[in-house]
Amino acid sequence: xxxxxxxxxxxxxxxxxxxxxxxxxxxxxxxxxxxxxxxxxxxxxxxxxxxxxxxxxxxxxxxxxxxxxxxxxxxxxxxxxxxxxxxxxxxxxxxxxxxxxxxxxx
Length: 106
Description:
By secondary structure, the chain is an alpha+beta fold. It is 42% helix and 22% strand. The protein has a 4-stranded mixed sheet, sandwiched between helices. The longest helix has 19 residues, at 87-105.
């Protein structure tokens, strides 16, 4: 997702999946495939290298699981404590969240 209107659409009455480290919001779209948007704030992760690591891993996890996801627009929002997770822990957390999201959107 690229434009503020796409993000605004997701923020209005979304399906929510949450963990202590991140929140995932989703709303159905008119396309035949899911789309991903990321909101990783300076407040939750101070250094750019850390924010970029989270975004890179979220994109990779989405790429691996997008064929199992319904046609929804998804926004991943980081929270405090996400930078303490290793890459492997974050990938497992995202995989679990994708499964929960799929169940809730059906």
